[in-house]
């Protein structure tokens, strides 16, 4: 491994811009070299004060410049970012990991090109423990997500079911099903369910409940795992980002910790 790994970031929103700023402040062994954005002028203004300005390039060019490509863009452009990184044998770090579930051929392709796909814990917690449990005999994995209604706005499932989420006045379960269907119906809201499914027993067997709760001020996720060896119950309460209330502020921090773990001498947690 070279002494320094270069990083490219697709998307400069709630996740990407925070991560870019943190990398620019200096992280041992990592150097931000390129970013992609929908609005180039805004992106140029965003990186204008950086100590080391990254190049602003089209999505597919990130993989030409960076060892690690972090995807932090809408799920609609996931495939373009993922494919270019995987074809070049890069380390691909997806935020929109719900978009990976129907594209597991990318994992097969990565085996051929030598790329790695590293799904960060993101807005969730405890995926180290879930992965450990999954080495044994797991009988069930569930996640219950509760968000303020504003954190669910725009989900295709709500349109299909004609649910006006902003009209909800009491805690209401708006979805119950498996992680695969949850990711399809809520592509910008429950990437956490996809990450949990990938860490544990897969998207068909991982069960998801999504609640719209007007009393909530945080995005809350509770994981429950039952296995022959262990019982896990874990809750995270995420402060929503100002830029995007669907996204918890912990997410760019989690990705930063994930990247740091790729170069650090001491790495804690498996
Ligand atoms: N894995 C996890 O735990 C979490 C995943 N997410 C997901 O991560 C992704 C990013 O989330 P946020 O940063 O909150 O979204 P955001 O909406 O704040 O930022 C996305 C950025 O991508 C930009 N963008 C749009 N089209 C683009 C294009 N063609 N090329 C380059 N940039 C483009 C937008 O202008 C925006 O600045 C979303 O898919 C979100 O659902 C969000 C929270 C947690
Ligand atoms: O999973 C997601 O896409 C986002 C989320 O719930 C959070 O940030 O709490």
Automatic annotation (TrEMBL):
InterPro entries: Asp/hSer_DH_NAD-bd, Asp_DH, Asp_DH_prok, L-Asp_DH, NAD(P)-bd_dom_sf
Catalytic activity: L-aspartate + NAD(+) + H2O = oxaloacetate + NH4(+) + NADH + H(+); L-aspartate + NADP(+) + H2O = oxaloacetate + NH4(+) + NADPH + H(+)
Keyword list, A-Z: NAD, NADP, Oxidoreductase, Pyridine nucleotide biosynthesis
Binding residues annotated for NAD(+), in chain numbering: 123, 191
Pfam families (alphabetical): Asp_DH_C, NAD_binding_3
Domain of life: Bacteria
Annotated Aspartate/homoserine dehydrogenase NAD-binding domain residues: 11-120
EC number(s) per entry: 1.4.1.21
Aspartate dehydrogenase domain location: 169-255
Enzyme class: oxidoreductase
Pathway: Cofactor biosynthesis; NAD(+) biosynthesis; iminoaspartate from L-aspartate (dehydrogenase route): step 1/1
Record-annotated active site: 221
Miscellaneous section: The iminoaspartate product is unstable in aqueous solution and can decompose to oxaloacetate and ammonia.
Family: Belongs to the L-aspartate dehydrogenase family.
Function: Specifically catalyzes the NAD or NADP-dependent dehydrogenation of L-aspartate to iminoaspartate.
Stated name of the protein: L-aspartate dehydrogenase
Gene expressing this chain: nadX
